[in-house]
Amino acid sequence: MSCNVLKPDMVLIPAGEFKVGLKTSGHIPEFLSERTSSENAQPMHKALAEAFYMDIYEVTYADFLKFKSHANYVEGQGHQPVRGVSWYEADAYCLWLGKRLPTEFEWEKSARGRAGQIYTWGNEFQRENANFGKTVLPGGQKETDQSVFGNYDMNGNVSEWTASWYQPYPDSTYQDKNYGEKYRVIRGGAINKREHGFLEEFAKLSFRNFGPPTHRSWDTGFRCAKSS
């Protein structure tokens, strides 16, 4: 499958340097656990990526059923982002199309742009700009949740699997027993069904979550990438 065929549903993320992570704030809200403190996204640093293509939208149920026809989903949700798939299923789907899962740095560049915006729309949090509600929406319903490169729903809707193992950033002093090749990184904010309410920390594009590759979550889907 050629890159020209892919262009209608993917955007080209140009090669170059970009910002990754967060600056140390010196203050971590006490309600945040070590896992959600964002210390694992420090220090902020510059990274370099070759040009690559990234899906404009998250993969839908209708897309996924072409690959795994016996998968179960609620009738009428075919146009919504698929969720509840394991990392292995997401990886297999992308490979089936001649694509791949993006690395977490590729994902972050696609979402934040070269300047490293904290949200797809800028650096000030505006909850209404992305889908942090109780229900998943079809892709592209929030025009304000569009990256500078043209990727939709990277700030809200569903979180997304990446190809990367959960590892420390370069020059990080943060220690985490979960680092290694046990968990895959999950990126992006998501709809909110949690009893403790909405946490703005989860909406930052630098936020790093992780899970075992066999895990299936109600708020996690994926999109594919492809080298240029």
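The record above closes out task 2.4. Task 2.5 opens with a second protein, given below.
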Amino acid sequence: MINKQLAKLILNEGLSTGADFSELYFEETYTHSINFDNGIVESIGSNNSTGVGIRLLKNNRSVYGYTNEIDKENLLKLVKKLRSAFSSKRKIKCKDFKDKKVTNINENDESYFLTPINKRIEILDKLTKIIKKESKLINRTVCAFAGDKKSIEIFNSEGLHIKDKKEHTRLIIQAFSVKGDKHEMALNVPGTTGSMNYFTKKINLEKIAKDVAKDAVEALNAKDCPSGKMPVVIGNGVGGVLFHEACGHSLEACAVSKNLSTFTPNRLNTKIASSLVTAYDDGTIKGRWGTNNIDDEGNKTTRNCLIKNGILKNYMVDRFYGRRMKRDANGSCRRQSYKFEPTTRMSNTYIDNGKSTPEEIIKSTKLGLYAKRLGGGSVNPITGQFEFSCSTAYIIRNGKICERVKGATLIGTGEEILKNIDMVGNDLDMDTGYCGSASGWVPVATGQPTLRVKEITVGGSGGKIQ
């Protein structure tokens, strides 16, 4: 940790050549993982890292640097190098620090790091046996735990001093299938910022493992997906990655403030989506993968309504890009580690529940695609143009889910999709992932209920849908 006397010295040095804001971020991280491959402990690993990042702001300019040598001499060396970016006289000095208390959102009654390794291995072994038992076509399983815990401390020139602890635990459940020369894979990756109780009491691991096995085996007989414009029903949970990528990034201040977004500030309080769509970025949901007590500027996380009944209501904003937009930061600033300058990022981003049931949505679709799970994709935040693959998809015929298909790709723009949503389910769920951007890879949750887009361009090599 950094003592207050040293922190104040460093921050004042940063302000001495005209910066109007200085910030010091300390971080200590410990990671641990267990990899269980085909019923055998393949590896157990751990790692420690410690470092400090220093940021200086002046108007709409920013400089950042970091070091893992956190003694006084090296911190002074770093901040003096950074302050050389500014050349005017000092206008302000660092205020006296006022300690700010953090309220812990998450459960921490049984930390992953305090759970005996044997107990973790027992869970992985049980999952492996469940998957193997489902089918002789499963030729390999990979089950793993990965956890990290961080202690952070933030000082800034406005007098903020705050400490926090963060913990993430993820469980990887993966099945590989083979039939002749065909090979397929399926996985599910539940994760939490809470305790191990999430895995042992709050979710049904047996069902998840069976579903993964079923998905891997079923994929062996999938047909090529037909192409063309058609209704697409997108499954709950992992389907939320489409909103995250196609729309969420376009609502981050780092894009909006530079006019690199289709949703520029002059569109606030205008209709950008179907009236059925209400969407949030919420960093306060207990135990969720993207939840934090505070963001990486020391601001309390919030439940931020982005879209309300189709109307654009707000953005995700950090301190630096908030200056350009003349908007206050709202707990949306994140970074991978001290090696990255923080910026606007999503946390738990989702479309909220509607009034339809999933069964009603499927039943009312005469012919279309059911995208149960989405895979990788790309998006241009300036235009909103996206392209997403479907890792698990089926054809809907006469209101029933029919044959499994492969190679399905969804093509369109974020705004087009938002406006074409004509049914929203009542089965909201979320999925875990990592989002990569300017401040590195951060844990995020994406979510939505089952919903239908009345028309999307679907790419595939199976001819026209019929």
